[in-house]
Amino acid sequence: MYSRTSPGAGLITATVSAGPIFVIGLLLGTWSADMDAVILPPGLSDASPSIVAGMVMTILAGALISGIPNVLGTCIMQRLGRHNIAMRLPVAWALAGGLAAGMPFALIDVGQDSAVAGFSFAFAGTMCALLCRCGVHWEECPLAADR
User: Which of 5, 33, 119, 121 reaches 20 to 30 Å from 130, CA-CA?
Assistant: First the structure.
């Protein structure tokens, strides 16, 4: 099976959005761990510069942390997809990304904070894997189509 790939768009999208996705996962994990927590957004007129600066810092930090894992995961899953058709499915990519990012926190049990961090990393890994999957396409081998 040949893979016709231009995973650059998916990789760039996943790498740039990894930080904001992690922050969303952190907010969801904190909210689900403590359902009494109320998340109140600040007044946008007062906090607009800090929100923009925080978002830029989140994008930069997320890109630095997720760049290499995104490239390695895309290459590995693309190669596995050439040899096994089940590895082409988005659910396989999502499971691989979530397990790869969240597994260290599953092995280390520190308490509720570890669970929230593990959820955040697993959520970000799953979303990044699905975004990386968007740029990969496989074609059937021309010799196999004649059978």
Answer: 33
- Which distant-in-sequence residues (6+ apart) come within 8 Å of 97 by Cβ? 73, 125, 126, 127, 128, 129, 130, 132
Q: Which amino acid makes up residue 39?
A: I
3-state SS class at 115: helix
What is the C-alpha R_g of the chain? 18
Q: What is the mean pLDDT of residues 60-84?
A: 90
Alpha-carbon dihedral angle through residues 117, 120, 124, 126, given to the nearest 10 degrees: 100
Residues 6 or more apart in contact with residue 119 via CB below 8 angstroms = 25, 28, 29, 32, 102
Q: How many residues does the chain have?
A: 147
pTM for this prediction: 0.79
Q: How many CB atoms lie within 10 A of CB 74?
A: 25
